[in-house]
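Q: My labmate handed me this sequence with no annotations at all. I'd like to see what the chain might look like in three dimensions before we decide whether it's worth expressing. Could you predict it?
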Amino acid sequence: MKKWKCLVCGYIHDGDEPPEKCPVCGADKSKFVELPPEEKKIKAPEPKTSSTASDKALDLMVKHHVHPISVHIPNGVVPISVIFVILAVMFNFLGLAQAAFYNLIFVLLAMPMALFSGYNEWQRKYEGNKTGLFTTKIICGFVVTLTAVMIVVWHMIDPEVTTSTSSNRGLFLLLNLIMLAATGIAGHLGGKLVFKD
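A: Here is what I predict for the chain of 197 residues:
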């Protein structure tokens, strides 16, 4: 049986023909090459190397997995923050809403590195391929950032937005759930790239 390698993400497909679309990154059939029979190991595409100091630093970011490391902060803290908001709404407890607020400030401090390192990795490791996976990850990253900014500003303007006296608490909760969904989708797609399944 033939083996086919996706030139975008490194996924290996077994079959007489390459798949119509890569099940990992969504690249079309033209991005697959047939592997010689002896090559069995899955190899991700190698990042391009450059000669300037800034390009070398950007290459090192990819080599040392800065993006997968940096996204652990929002991927881990956003769910906790949203749980705090849900509990604050359910039990009318402002202390949990305040904890969610501080967690989101921490997320906002981490997002510039997560977005920048993701863009850098997309350009250097995946050559800026515009498949559905990468487009969705980029959109989700911006949705997380935008919703986090909106939630933090909203909480600063109305610190009691989660209380039963606030007519906007349902909308505030919905905004938090949108942020959580975008975080989860981006994390899931990133996991597909890393684990190839």
